[in-house]
Amino acid sequence: MATVSAAGSIWRQPGMRPLVVMTTAGFSGYALLLTIAPLWAVHGGASTAGSGLVNGVLLTFTVLTQLLVPRALRTFGWGPVLTVGLLLMGVPGALYSVSDRLDAVLALSAARGVGFGVLTVAGSAAVAALVGERRRGEAIGVYGLAVAMPNLVLLPAGPWIAETAGYWAVFTLSALPLVGIPAGLRLASTLHRSAPDLNPGTVAEHDPGDPESTAYRRLLRPMLLLMAVTSAGGAVLTFTPQILDSASVAAGGLFLMGLSAALSRWRAGVLADRYGAERFLVPLVPLTGVGMALVSWSVADSDGARVGSFLAAMVLVGLCYGALQNLTLLVSFTAVSRRHHNLASAVWNVGFDAGTALGSVAVGAIAQLTSFATAFLVAGLVAVATLPLALRRPVAVATEPPEPRPTAG
Question: Quick check: pTM over 0.70?
Answer without folding.
Answer: yes
